[in-house]
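Researcher: Let's do a round of design. I'm pasting the structure tokens now; please hold your answer until I've finished.
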């Protein structure tokens, strides 16, 4: 079975204290820090980009799992690579014409390439990105409409996770949106091994407990 990775979404943190919030999550047992890059165009929200990643990188060696909710992901590869991003996950809906170049560029900058899909996008759309040359190493299945934290988990997305896990036993399959103690079982039993969680972790009195509960569920 693939390794469990718990990635708190820094979108739910206090952005004015990003470095200490990141350290707090690592102290609580986080494996990765999930960084939501939104351009106000692909999604109706605007968050952070390369300058913020670069600032955070000066304070931590942690794996920065960047989720690009942007219309032109190719434009972000070089700046994010320079800034110190570790993973670069773009949306399949934003890269239908140029995903091969995108994956190649991401790899050449030393980042781990991933692809994400919105709830309305069928899983079959990511197959070409997994099978050929220049393939991605992670699939991020959105379990809410991208754009905001604190939304309700969509259990029907677990069919995508199950299908993907059957076809790719050792692939990193990440889920994002509405994950927490009450929804982790659905995700882990479907086969997800990377779990993004924002509000359930940052809103908990004891984030370490929530992180360990989710890890145990994935590793069961
Ligand atoms: C939503 C983002 C998520 C978000 C998850 O578009 O991609 O990473 O922060 O937040 P929760 O866990 O609160 O749903
Ligand atoms: Zn995300």
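Researcher: That's everything. Go ahead.
Model: Designed sequence:
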């Amino acid at each position: 079975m693939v390794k469990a990775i718990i990635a708190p979404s820094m979108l739910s943190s206090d952005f004015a204290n990003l470095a200490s919030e990141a350290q707090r999550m690592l102290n609580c047992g986080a494996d990765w820090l999930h960084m939501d890059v939104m351009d106000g165009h692909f999604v109706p929200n605007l968050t952070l980009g390369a300058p913020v990643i670069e600032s955070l990188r000066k304070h931590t060696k942690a794996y920065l799992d960047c989720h690009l909710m942007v219309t032109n992901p190719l434009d972000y590869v070089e700046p994010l690579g320079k800034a110190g991003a570790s993973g670069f996950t773009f949306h399949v809906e934003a890269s239908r014409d140029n995903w091969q170049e995108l994956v190649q560029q991401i790899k050449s900058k030393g980042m781990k390439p991933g692809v994400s899909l919105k709830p309305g996008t069928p899983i079959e759309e990511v197959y070409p990105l997994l099978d050929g040359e220049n393939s991605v190493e992670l699939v991020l299945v959105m379990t809410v409409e991208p754009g905001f934290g604190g939304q309700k988990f969509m259990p029907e997305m677990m069919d995508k996770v199950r299908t993907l896990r059957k076809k790719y036993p050792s692939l990193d399959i990440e889920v994002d949106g509405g994950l927490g103690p009450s929804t982790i079982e659905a995700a882990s039993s479907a086969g997800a091994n990377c779990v993004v969680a924002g509000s359930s972790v940052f809103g908990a009195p004891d984030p370490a407990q929530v992180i360990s509960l989710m890890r145990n569920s994935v590793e069961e």
